[in-house]
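Retro notes (design track)

What went well: tokenization of the new backbones is finally stable.
What didn't: we kept losing track of which sequence belonged to which structure.
Fix going forward: every design gets posted as structure first, then sequence, in one message. First example under the new rule, 72 residues:
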């Protein structure tokens, strides 16, 4: 991620109801240390064919890899 970059990344919930996860990432020009904020973080109730599942959550692997999440 280059300096002065702002990225808005939808990680879930596009085109469907529930399962929302939107991440806003910023890398300031002066520090070079990226920061991310997760907004609209939600879940979805399972479809009838998803037996034994109580809730469905978005895929958080991107945030786990980057490790610069500052707030939810």
């Amino acid at each position: 991620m280059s300096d002065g970059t702002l990225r808005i990344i939808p990680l879930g919930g596009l085109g469907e109801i529930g399962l929302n996860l939107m991440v806003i990432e910023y890398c300031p020009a002066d520090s070079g240390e990226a920061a991310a904020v997760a907004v609209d973080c939600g879940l979805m109730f399972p479809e009838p064919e998803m037996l034994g599942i109580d809730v469905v959550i978005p895929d958080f692997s991107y945030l786990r890899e980057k490790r610069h999440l500052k707030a939810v």
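Added context from the reviewer: Residues 61-66 form the longest helix (6 residues).
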